[in-house]
Design goal:
The protein is of the alpha+beta class. It folds into 3 domains: 33-71 and 449-488, no CATH class; 79-213 and 425-438; 239-393, no CATH class. Helices cover 65% and strands 8% of the residues. It has a 4-stranded antiparallel beta sheet. It has a two-stranded antiparallel ribbon with strand order 2-3. Helix 2 runs antiparallel to helix 14 and helix 7 packs antiparallel against helix 12 (355-391). Residues 203-266 form a coiled coil. The chain crosses the membrane at residues 453-474. Keywords: Coiled coil, Membrane, Transmembrane, Transmembrane helix.
Length: 489
């Protein structure tokens, strides 16, 4: 069948014989036929489908073959990091200060912060990639970026680094790992420095508070002589002791005074007279005068019994007795140092058996006088002690308050100092401990290009093209069946 004269081919194509499929009348090519296709048994459709298949195959396999032919070989080195999941704690008891504790939570204890995500971001940070590239003397753009994979519900981090050769890939992974750990140490040191700077001002304030309180305590001690509040309690106890001692001494003085009064009433002489009497009778000359006076007294008594008051013998005896008595008084005044009036009040008769009572009176009076002196001294000491206690009531209360403030300030300062020191042990508070579980590997085969994967992709694409062409070949009966089903519905 030839072409219609209305649509005759151009002059250069006249006489050329076209295939049968191309010689189909244009009036037979309609939109409905293009949509529904031809008959399944029509072999004239095969060249069109073969051409489409060849074009699609060329479009699929040309890039794949070109990629496999021209792509450079790339090698991938892998390493694994792990974050230990347990925390750490430490407690230190400081003698006479208190307890300092340090506790590091597990890095996975907070649901809002994931250390693995933090480290994943840090591994891909520009400064780490730049540092790793700088260690290998290459631009950062040539170094490449790592491929990082996190394993769910674990602390594992898998890192892959690509290079031009197995050794180059391993070297890049080592450089990335070294830069990562260097940056981690720098971040931890920076955190410690920031913490120390932030706590240094607080420590200085605590130290100044302790020093100010200590200076106030020293000033009060210098002014009052009171060393501490316990010393005031000691002074109060001493005053109470003096008061008890004074009461005992006063009671003893009362008893001793009663004993002296009894002896004085018995002897009819006071203690001074008894002492003077004992002193007189210790003198031999006075005793001789007393003996002579006793003889004259006897003669006087005898004369008074024999003679009348104006008898010369009685007068002579009385005169001798008075002369001897005056002599005794003069001797007594010379021995005792008393005047004549005081001597006349003494008992100048021989002591006899009264010597022991006189001596006891002197001893008791001496003891009474000693007790009286002790009582006076105790009263004076008690008065001074009470006055000092009263004067130190206010300073003692102030000193006790200052000592309490000082103890609190010192405890706070020591605690803050201990915390600042123990916090240095916890290096992994913000950046948890990370360890290398698997060192960078040395790849034994290239990771790119992947020939098997590319060929499998080409085969799959080719198969899809074949499925598409088959569906295009069978589309007419399929459409007819769908239309027939729709009409029945």
């Amino acid at each position: 069948m030839t072409l219609n004269a209305d649509i005759a081919p151009p002059a250069p194509l006249r006489g050329v014989r076209f295939p049968r499929v191309l010689r189909t009348r244009l009036r037979d090519i309609k939109a409905l036929r293009l949509l529904r296709g031809g008959r399944i048994s029509d072999p004239g459709r095969l060249p069109r489908y073969a051409g489409v298949f060849l074009l699609a195959g060329a479009a699929i396999w040309a890039p794949i073959l070109s990629y496999l032919e021209t792509a450079p070989l790339r090698y991938t080195s892998g390493l694994s990091l792990i974050l230990p999941g347990s925390g750490a704690s430490a407690s230190v008891n400081l003698d006479r200060i208190g307890q300092a504790s340090s506790y590091a939570n597990s890095p996975f204890s907070s649901p809002s912060v994931s250390p693995t995500e933090t480290y994943k971001r840090l591994l891909a940070a520009d400064r780490i990639l730049g540092a790793a590239a700088g260690s290998m003397d290459m631009p950062k753009t040539d170094f490449g970026k790592p491929r990082i994979e996190l394993v769910d519900q674990t602390g594992l981090i898998h890192v892959q680094m690509t290079g031009n050769s197995p050794a180059d890939a391993q070297a890049r992974a080592d450089a990335l790992l070294a830069a990562f750990f260097t940056e981690i140490d720098a971040l931890r040191n920076d955190e410690q420095a920031v913490r120390e700077d932030g706590g240094r001002s607080a420590l200085e304030d605590y130290r100044a508070s302790v020093a100010a309180t200590r200076e106030e305590i020293a000033r009060l001690q210098r002014e009052t002589g009171l060393i501490n509040a316990a010393q005031y309690q000691t002074l109060v106890g001493e005053a109470d002791g003096l008061r008890a001692d004074l009461a005992a001494l006063e009671q003893a003085l009362v008893e001793k005074s009663r004993a002296v009064e009894v002896l004085r009433a018995t002897l009819g002489i006071d203690a001074a007279g008894a002492a003077a009497t004992l002193k007189l009778h210790a003198d031999a000359e006075f005793n001789a005068i007393i003996a002579e006076m006793a003889a004259h007294a006897g003669a006087l008594a005898e004369a008074e019994g024999k003679y009348g008051p104006n008898h010369p013998a009685l007068r002579a005896a009385h005169s001798d007795h008075q002369a001897t008595k005056r002599k005794a008084q003069q001797r007594a005044a010379a021995i005792t140092g008393l005047n004549l009036v005081q001597v006349q009040m003494l008992d100048l008769s021989p002591a006899g058996g009264r010597v022991e009572l006189l001596a006891q009176l002197v001893r008791e009076e001496s003891a009474r006088a000693g007790l009286a002196a002790e009582v006076d001294s105790a009263r004076a000491r008690l008065a001074r002690a009470d006055a000092r206690v009263l004067d130190l009531i206010g300073p003692a209360a102030r000193l006790e308050d200052l000592e309490r403030d000082f103890a609190v300030a010192e405890a706070v300062f020591a605690s803050a100092m201990a915390r600042s020191q123990t916090s240095k042990v916890d290096l992994y508070a913000s950046y948890p401990l990370v360890q290398v579980l698997e060192n960078p590997s040395l790849p034994d085969a290239p990771s790119s290009p992947r020939k098997k994967l590319a060929i499998a992709a080409g085969v799959a694409a080719t198969f899809m093209v074949l499925i598409g062409l088959a569906m295009g070949w069978l589309r007419r009966p399929l459409i007819d069946r769908l239309l027939h089903t729709g009409d029945q519905g």
